[in-house]
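Review box. Two proteins, two foldings.
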Amino acid sequence: NIIRYYSQDPAKNIGEVRKITIEVHDNVNGPKVLNVNVTGGTKVIDKIYTNNQKPVIEVQFLEPAIVTHSRLVNKATGLIVQLQGNTELSTKVSFATAENLPNGEYVFELNAKNKNNIFMDQAVNQIIVVDNSKPTITVSIPDGAVINTSVIAITVTFNKEASIKSLKINSEELKEKLSTTDNKIYSVMLNISDGNKALEITGEDFAKNTATKTVNFVVDANPGTITLANPRFGTAPRYTFDLAVETDNNAACKYFLDNNFEFDFMEQFAVTSGTLHKITDFNKISPGDLTTHKLYVRCKDQRGISFKAFDLNVDTSPPQLKGAFAFPSIVAE
């Protein structure tokens, strides 16, 4: 289109006719980026995290384009890494770094033009975080701690933003109970039974570096309990058998058969001081003795001495099948 115009002075004299040529084109927008991908990258909000120190950056355009400017700039140090773009029109362009990048936060700068030599309306400034260091995990419960309450607050702290992939206490998964406001400090309040506990934590930062931590502790909120572990129901199938009792917490246990003595005058289990207290080849019930005896057990832990008595006997006769029935009474195929 050509626009012609002229000027006129106050005396009505017409000036020289001038003209302006106006060209109007379609497709006047510059190329647009569909997405930016990074080797091993994870996008969190507006940042891409990777633990690869020589990442390949792949840019997908909505139309064929030629990259005119591309580089990485370290935000902390100002380090500039020039990146080689393409020379022919393409919808996909990959950028490889020649050397390992130091850990840090980088700005990926990019501009490009399309076939009409029209540049991008807005250049790309994508934050890329390179980080190959494992997160460190700190737990509020010290390793080896003895805790005298059942309601326990557990705090897990990372040195950087991370997620908890697993938190188990004695193999029970509890990660869904945790809460956080900053992806660095996670907390939970748990009601935990007495006994020896193993807390196992697996964490992963946004760059997919993983770390694990194990903390062993003891919950001793209630007076000690003693249970007969073997024979399970107090009846042994032979006159020489393994005798064992269990406690909910670490303790030193002693026993006596048929006499209820004080702790210092009882006999000690061959294996004790943990939670399982055992005598191998126990034979204090005479062969042929079918009477029920009393096994007296006392265990000493940091809370004091707990006591339990169990019935104990030997029955060598096999069980006899007295009868059988089915319900319903008529069974048909």
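Next protein.
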Amino acid sequence: PRIICDLLNPPPSAKQQVPLDVSYIEAAFRTLSFIFRYDAQVLLDQEACLEPMRRYYSVTLAHRRDIVRRLAAESFAPLVRKLGKKRHLKRILRALVASQNTDERLRQDAVDGIAQLFFEVARGAAGKVHSKGNTLAIHCIADFVIDHPNEVVFNVASAFFERLCGHLNTSSMAPVVMKLVRSAEDCSNSTALSYLLRLVTQVLGRKNSIFLKQQQHMVNVVTSLLKGKVERFGSLTMDSRESSADLLFSLWRAFPDDVDLASLLTSLLRDKMSAKVADTTLAYRVVKDLVPYLPVETATVHIGSAVLSNATMMNDPSAAVTLMHALASVQQASDVDT
């Protein structure tokens, strides 16, 4: 309490406070790290003694200064791994969900700090996940997204996976992708499904989809997920449709010249395009977000005819003209780059 409350979060006073020097912050967390390293067994033998420590998470992991949040995550993570219980981390996420009415800046800091804690728990040696990272962090947060589908929980998960994928090499990313894909396949909650699909798209899309290009056996896994979701496209909520479309576009953009993949994805697209044109409908999004990234011949053969067929079935002539004009005025992304 003297370190965390009095030094890092001193009580307000009438006098203007002098900003805390970085060397003091580093010394404070170095002290905490030594305490956790050499006296941790006392806490771990009596788990009830560890729970009160969670009240110090809010004033460190949600601190206004980034360095405090980062060093706090680095200090607490080894202790959490030694404890080895997912419920400890889940209680932190529940506390965050319960505090959603707090100040926006404070909530953003808390999301960043908690994501950093999950990352430090999961981080192993260079390019790898810690031996306890899969169960404690990756599975915990994916399961929590399903059980508590909430925007703030998704933001924590998104920030966590962004950090984690930046640390992992491509071979170590396979279990992460598999967990997210399997969770999405088994998910029955439409809101949670949308969040999980967005996470899969985010992970696969990193560094120009390098993971898929180096681990091509995973393409079949992701395609199987898409098949199950797109085939019942009409029964999905609008958010889940959007997320399914984003994943489909990301996969096709990664392999624009793959004939078999193009044939499969086209068959999924052809009968699923909405008859109404709006920014959120599949037909318009295909033109806007997919066609510019495909070779002209591929886009013409596999997409152009389906989009034009869709336009002819529309009851609103102005909507049909809008769609055809959007298709005719597409500029290839490669042309824009040059």
